[in-house]
Amino acid sequence: IMKERQSGRAKKTVIILSAVILLIAAIVAVSLFVREDKLEELQNEAISELERNEGQYDERSIVLRSTSKARAEELAALFGAELRITENGRYARLTLPEGKTIKDVWSLDENRVYLEEMSADYQVRIADVEEDTSRLPLRPDYTVSDADYALQTYLDYINMQNLWYNYTGTGVTVAVIDTGIDTDHPEFAGRISEYSYNATEDKIVKDWGYDWSLIEDEQGHGTAVTGVIAGTMNSGNITGIAPNVNILVIKAECDERGTFKRTSDLVFGLYYAIERDVQVVNIYRQRTMPDIH
User: Fold this and answer.
1) Residue 60 gets which letter from DSSP?
2) Residues whose CB falls within 8 Å of the CB of residue 142, separated by 6 or more in sequence, listed in order
3) What is the DSSP string of 243-293?
4) Could you tell me if 108 and 114 are in contact, meaning their C-beta atoms sit under 8 angstroms apart?
5) Is residue 131 predicted with pLDDT exceeding 70?
């Protein structure tokens, strides 16, 4: 009788264990199915977004945000891409080889698991300047002899008061991330840093034989913005808000329409400004794309 009872308990144990194993297997199968379903949905959404915004991003660039050096190197090797990464390893760009596009990468099912780590490298429009006249105008309390100073009415709306008696920016470096600068313009003579940087080409003026053409402004916007910030006082046409600051020019590639070709250029420029430990950074752009990064 004891043997029969033990045999019965053993059978029950086997049945229970088998049921548990089957239940676990079913849960795992369902979980895998749900995950694959979600990854397929993510892939379809990502491809649809690329198709909707065709022509508004760099087809050979993939941006990695909140990444690591090891992970970025792994993905670069996987896609046969050239890697550019910030010093802290948190932000990277993969440049795909000729003939391969971001849509090609995202269309492969085996790449679904990486999609949450990646985003397209969208173009960015230069922002238009709009003067704020909602405040009462108040001319700065200071005598300025620059020829076009009277036309700088925007200065009347930023509450300058008597600031220039006490402070003109001496000893401060301002990084201007834009289309570059007119390196021969007398308004900036002697104040453009030798550490100015071409963020698209990843080149520093000083390190490339003081090649100032690296930051030359073909579009004009960067020169205009820098003039507003840092035009010298009493020796030219205009005066800047901080006429004695030093200028760290950070140039990003821009087309004739006033569109920066890659958001990542601006981000790399911003990281560079932080690494140079500048006190002020100016980046003047507007997004044409929804905030999907």
Assistant:
1) E
2) 160, 162, 163, 164, 165
3) TT-EEEEEE--B-TTSEES-HHHHHHHHHHHHHTT-SEEEE-EEESS-S--
4) no
5) no
d(CA 290, CA 292): 6
Question: Using CA atoms, how far apart are residues 191 and 123, in angstroms rounded to an integer?
Answer: 30
99: left (phi over 0), alpha (psi -120 to 50) or beta: left
With residue 177 as reference, give the H or E element that holds it. Answer: strand 173-178
Structure tokens at 61: 């660039």
Output the CA torsion 23→27→30→32 (10° steps): -130
- Rounded to an integer, what distance in angstroms lies between the CA atom of residue 174 and that of residue 170? 11
Q: Specify the residue for token string 């030219």.
A: 236
* pTM for the structure as a whole: 0.83
Q: What is the pLDDT of residues 52-94, one digit of tens each?
A: 999 999 999 999 989 999 999 999 999 999 999 999 999 999 9
Cα(174)–Cα(245) distance, integer angstroms: 7
Residue whose token pair is 């890697």: 83
Residue 87, Cβ density class (10 Å: 0-12 exposed, 13-18 middle, ≥19 buried): exposed
Measured torsion, CA atoms of residues 158, 159, 164, 169, in degrees rounded to the nearest 10? -50
For residue 262, what are its two tokens? 């890659």
Q: Tell me which residue of 104, 67, 107, 61 sits closest to 85, measured CA to CA.
A: 67
Q: How many CB atoms lie within 10 A of CB 31?
A: 10
Look at the block and give the residue holding tokens 């550019």: 84
Place of tokens 């300025």: 144
